Amino acid sequence: MVNRFELAKQELVATPALVVDLPTVERNLQRLHSYADQHGLKVRPHTKTHKSRRFARMQVEHGSVGLTVAKLGEAEVMGQESSDILIAYPAIDPDRRRRVAELARTHTVRVAVDSQYGVSVLAAAAEAAGTTIGILVDLNIGFPRTGVPTPAAALELAQQVVQAGKHLRLDGILIYPGHVWAPADQQEEILTQIDQKLAETIELWQAHGLSVDIVSGGSTPTAFQSHFVRSLTEIRPGTNIFNDMNTVRAGFCELDDCAAAVIATVVSTAVPGKCVIDAGNKTLTSDRNVLQPDSGHGHVVEYPQARIIRLSEEHGEIDFSGCDQTPQLGERVTIIPNHICPCVNLQDQFYLQTPEGIEKLNVDARGLLA
Amino acid sequence: MVNRFELAKQELVATPALVVDLPTVERNLQRLHSYADQHGLKVRPHTKTHKSRRFARMQVEHGSVGLTVAKLGEAEVMGQESSDILIAYPAIDPDRRRRVAELARTHTVRVAVDSQYGVSVLAAAAEAAGTTIGILVDLNIGFPRTGVPTPAAALELAQQVVQAGKHLRLDGILIYPGHVWAPADQQEEILTQIDQKLAETIELWQAHGLSVDIVSGGSTPTAFQSHFVRSLTEIRPGTNIFNDMNTVRAGFCELDDCAAAVIATVVSTAVPGKCVIDAGNKTLTSDRNVLQPDSGHGHVVEYPQARIIRLSEEHGEIDFSGCDQTPQLGERVTIIPNHICPCVNLQDQFYLQTPEGIEKLNVDARGLLA
Predict the structure, then answer these.
(1) Using the beta-carbon criterion (under 8 Å), do B268 and A367 form an inter-chain contact?
(2) Which residue ranges does the record assign to the D-serine dehydratase-like domain (chains A, B) (predicted)?
């Protein structure tokens, strides 16, 4: 197998370092937008994966209608690349709601809300700022994290949005199918159930004179099966731009679709049968693989049979007992992480690999927790 | 129970935020230095826990003989607070060994080494810089990560250090008892075995005319049992300055000895029996508790029966089914993390709580992976 990260592996001054291969990013974006176009779906990608203005700009250039974020710090950064920002998060505490209302001065801003409290405080914040905030009612469709439980509860919250007055605008419904990690060919049944719950909710809203302009769904695992949820108007995949061992091991993409990798150096081989690299959980995170938690903390491209068995903060211990060869001290290896989003958040920069060479890029929205 | 983080909880503008209570830090440092003084041990604390010049300065003021780091970026930051830096890491790749040799121009610098390759390349780097690097031979005493396996192998490496010439200085032996997570009263047997292996190694070195000036050991779990390893001259605890739920649940300290906590806000209560806070694994890390992996992702001070059952990047889901009361939307809660070191690495700043008020402090060495 050709290691697409070979150039960066040769040229990097210091390790560990996160490399992103630009041609692979381009291919991933093209594939997503081609699917979305085919099914009449808009794309509003979640930028939590890359946290970077440069990749956000690429997404907009590929036809994304806006950008999705979780926290307000991210909203303010991504607002520099798009005038249309969805905060797919209950941004209802005093600091966030004030910043949402401020951002709405210059941007189309929408917030996912799942409480009457949220509706009230966002309305008050928008009134204080003299702005208008779009509201998507967060409907729980099976992933029990946020979201109102039933079509009736969604209707009640939607009516409260309308009653809250002119500083809120009822825009539609948001879902997050975070529980759908089945292989693509087994998703149809779960997605059809989601489709039914959404259809029931929309029918109820319409029967009460409420329109549903946006039905926002999707995630990377469900991205290419979004057409099974017929009422969706848009999808919000995040990981898709880079992919990782979670999406590979779940069968959503191939190893060659992984655009991001950590280059690390072997710094110890003193313990027989293993070696230690200079990337621990401060570089790769402690996240286990979602579907194969015992598969190790990432994939070693040069030694596919190797297993990253334990991470300390700065040490990654790799078991080479299944390999014909073992790396030498000082050798560099290429790791595809289990979960690329929090891994990106641990780096101050990307090393962008382009046909012209290696370029350094800031992770602009890294660590913006508020 | 009084919540020692109440002041910050009231006064913080935005959440999630990492608060450190200064009086608790002072007490933790006093306790450690009092134990060390009593047993004639020097303290060379590992600064990976706090990654901050201010706390490093406090450690030096309490009598630490130097500071310990893993990576070179940390060494360069902590070198501003102490002239004596131990790099307890195989810093042998081209970038690190060059920076080690440079730092040795102005500082007493020591590196833990476990390979002949490491000895050779560090000698060459020091020669190129015209400096001298101190070497501690890393001896594996049961935690199979780094370290030469036997007293004989340690002797062989020590002899290679001497033979490498005047740019290396053989300073002694380093151990890391990373496997010792037994309760304090059960550690004696394991530590006595370590004591024997060290005694054998030292005897062998001395029989070959090599002196052992430094025997560097310790970690937070073993810190207060260090006297069972009689040959130690110094200890390197890290977590001890702040403590966390790992040290609490292992019985190494009390909840009241935890100096650092994350203040978070409840942002959703839509799913019955649980609530969602605005701190996920981007704030708390995914690290499970070492001894009680099913105890949840940290301790909720205000609701001791609550359990943080799942973390997404920006959502922390808390199960309140065991509690008499549940928090309200918008309420703030105080979380003691499982593992404070990587949690600190996720924050750009601390909010330092002092008798005078809240002070903002940079995490100076955050994210310095190289």
Answers:
(1) no
(2) 259-354
